[in-house]
Design brief:
It is built from 28 helices and 18 strands. With 671 residues, it is an alpha/beta fold. The longest helix has 22 residues, at 336-357.
Length: 671
């Protein structure tokens, strides 16, 4: 079990120095951090085009000091600072066990496969490193065998994918599906051949000894530095299941990269959720287990079908459209409460039958246990709402998820940070609002720790222009999206493509695409128009980079974690300041709670989040010392509202203009 604080009555965990670091600790420190990052240091000798960045050196020194003193440190480092090396160098030299948690699996893979080996080799640090992901990322021998034996695939392509995965499983050392390049990461077959917390048999699994998940966990336990992601970190904190149960108490340092994502991820995992898709998965798994171990149980199939129908009926009770709904809105729907009761009753009957068969196989027993857990989650929605939580639902195309989300994660996270002394490092390119971290510290319960903010070393005054066009209608005007495209089109033509349109809603994204298509056809241009959803994110980005003069329209997925360098991207258009919709049930509940406390929810919560999101979007533009481009923000509130000044002042020190002429001259000079 994962306890950041030791169980009552037990001593704090003993932090053992891993074997690799015991060797390393006997080696004297080769050089100081100043020497490592110097013009004639090991990085300069190993990396072509290496430049000394004073921000990077200072950041590394501050992180090293925080690690040494087991303290909390928050660091915002602008694009180009080199923050990854700034925390990896002191981490590898710390003589202790380190966990690095990233915001995405993409960055996680980049750290483990590229950055970490490079830094380790340059420093000649004899440190063991490991990559640990959630169990759904690893091929499961047990479920793969069941899927192949059952052979129930929806298409020939799915069947072919299953055979490819089987071949991969025979040759891979890690079992990580990211290494199976022959099968698309979005193939539906992956769901059938990987395990989840719900359907993993654990030590009762006949394939336990060869389990890829267990091998990854063993490697993580033996390693000096382990790379995880935020979802895995928090899933384990709350569920005590994903492999860090022994790992975290033994570590000396936790480093969160892309730390701006933590409040959202923490809210997700510190709450409670149940989805109709989980019911369908349970019935499917139970049916497969019964075909092997309980064919004579004739009551199970019809009971499973009844539970499936009840789950689908609950989704339909919410209505056809996808969206988010407060608990009050759900209960107001005439069929919701009755459908919820029917699902609970159907699942109770299904669970009772599973109980009679549980002794016949580990898989059937696990299904019975899962049914009981799902019932506990569903019954919560028939009871009075727990204080401090907001109850809400999200309807997707095929499923409904019911959530209970804490209004405040600060107290919960602060409690998790207690116990054995260790260093906690939080870093991102976007954490501060006008150079201050009050908002972030308040959200995460960090108090008033040491912090620092380093500006990007890029020469934004020469490399970029921030353009806020005059005469734009208010964002709630029905003509706003048309006005955005009309105002941006001259800049798009001057940039010769190479444009991101970042929209704050899917509706605006779709309308922007329609309007741009009309403009492109009217002008007779041969410019690819790429749109979020028409292909995977990685595929769209590869096509965008390859063409060099394309236009890409996206919403939230493309506001962060996107790196396009050079002339392929020279114009970023943001339609609105990205305030969360005020009718969002979680936001609405948090605003109400803050108002009850006499606080200003807009200034303390909504605006800081919007500023951080704008900074993320703006960060897509300049990724290198040689990049040049224009950031165009079309929201007139940045110029007309007092709070717009905070957005304006939080952005990098680009040349500012309200005139299109300046933009056209900038692009003309860049040719």
């Amino acid at each position: 079990m994962l306890f950041l604080c030791p169980p009552r009555g037990q001593p704090p965990p003993v932090v053992r120095c891993p074997r690799a670091f015991r060797r390393f600790s006997r080696i004297p420190a080769l050089t100081s951090l100043q020497e490592i990052f110097s013009p004639d240091g090991p990085f300069a000798r190993a990396i072509e085009g290496y430049r000394v960045r004073s921000q990077q050196v200072e950041m590394a020194e501050r992180i090293a000091a925080a690690i040494k003193s087991n303290s909390v440190f928050i660091a915002e480092a602008g694009t180009g600072t080199g923050k990854t090396f700034a925390y990896l160098v002191p981490a590898l030299r710390s003589n202790g066990k380190v966990i690095v948690s990233t915001g995405t699996k993409t960055l996680q893979d980049q750290l483990f496969n590229k950055d970490l080996p490079m830094v380790r080799d340059i420093l000649r640090a004899p440190a063991q490193i490991a990559l640990l992901k959630g169990r759904a990322n690893y091929v499961c021998h047990y479920h793969l065998q069941n899927a192949l034996g059952e052979g129930r695939f929806l298409s020939r392509e799915d069947a072919a994918d299953a055979r490819r995965i089987a071949a991969f499983a025979r040759t891979t050392h890690s079992g990580d599906k990211a290494e199976c390049l022959e099968v698309n990461e979005n193939s539906p077959v992956w769901q059938q051949v990987t395990s989840t917390r719900d359907n993993c048999l654990g030590q009762d699994c006949p394939n336990y000894k060869e389990c890829f998940v267990m091998q990854a966990r063993k490697a993580a336990m033996a390693a000096d530095l382990v790379v995880v992601n935020h979802h895995l970190f928090f899933a384990d904190v709350m569920l005590r299941d994903e492999g860090m149960a022994e790992l975290l108490p033994a570590c000396n340092t936790v480093i969160f990269d892309e730390a701006h994502q933590l409040p959202e991820v923490a809210s997700l995992f510190f709450g409670d959720s149940i989805s109709t898709a989980q019911v369908l998965d349970l019935v499917r798994d139970a049916r497969n287990e019964a075909l092997t171990h309980a064919r004579d149980c004739l009551d199970l199939p019809p009971a499973g079908k009844a539970a499936e129908k009840a789950a689908r009926d609950l989704r339909l009770a919410v209505g056809v459209d996808a969206g988010r709904f407060s608990a009050a809105q759900l209960h107001e729907k005439p069929e919701f409460d009755a459908a919820l009761t029917t699902l609970i009753e159907s699942l109770e009957r299904f669970a009772a039958i599973l109980e009679t068969q549980a002794e016949r196989a580990e898989g059937l027993e696990k299904c019975w246990q899962r049914a009981g857990e799902l019932l506990d989650h569903l019954r919560r929605w028939q009871q009075p709402e727990e204080a401090g939580y907001v109850y809400w639902g999200e309807a997707f195309t095929q499923s409904l998820q019911l959530n209970a989300t804490p209004l405040d994660v600060a107290g919960i996270f602060r409690k998790q940070m207690g116990g054995h002394p260790r260093a906690w490092i939080f870093t991102s390119a976007t954490l501060a609002v006008q150079g201050r971290f009050h908002h972030y510290c308040s959200e995460m319960g960090l108090g008033e720790p040491e912090s620092a903010c380093w500006q990007s070393p890029f020469d934004y005054g020469k490399q970029a222009v921030l353009y806020a066009p005059l005469g734009m209608p208010e964002p709630n005007d029905w003509r706003f999206t048309e006005a955005v495209v009309e105002a941006a089109w001259p800049a798009v033509q001057a940039a010769r493509g190479g444009t991101f349109f970042l929209c704050t809603s899917l509706r605006a994204m779709r309308r922007t695409r329609e309007l741009l298509q009309e403009k492109i056809e009217a002008a007779g241009l041969d410019v690819p128009l790429l749109v979020q959803g028409e292909g995977s994110k990685n595929d769209l980005l590869q096509r965008f980079r390859f063409h060099g003069a394309a236009i890409l329209v996206g919403s939230q997925s493309f506001w962060e974690g996107v790196d396009v360098r050079g002339e392929a991207l020279s114009l970023v258009v943001i339609d609105k300041i990205p305030f969360a919709p005020p009718d969002d049930p979680v936001l609405s509940a948090r605003i109400d709670e803050m108002k009850k406390q006499g606080r200003n929810a807009f200034i303390e919560y909504q605006l800081p989040r919007a500023v951080i999101n704008v900074k993320q979007g703006a960060g897509r533009l300049i990724r290198d010392e040689s990049d040049r481009g224009v950031l165009m923000i079309c929201d007139p509130r940045m110029l007309t509202k007092p709070y717009g000044r905070k957005v304006w002042q939080s952005l990098p020190p680009m040349q500012r203009t309200k005139e299109l002429r300046t933009v056209l001259e900038f692009f003309a000079a860049s040719r």
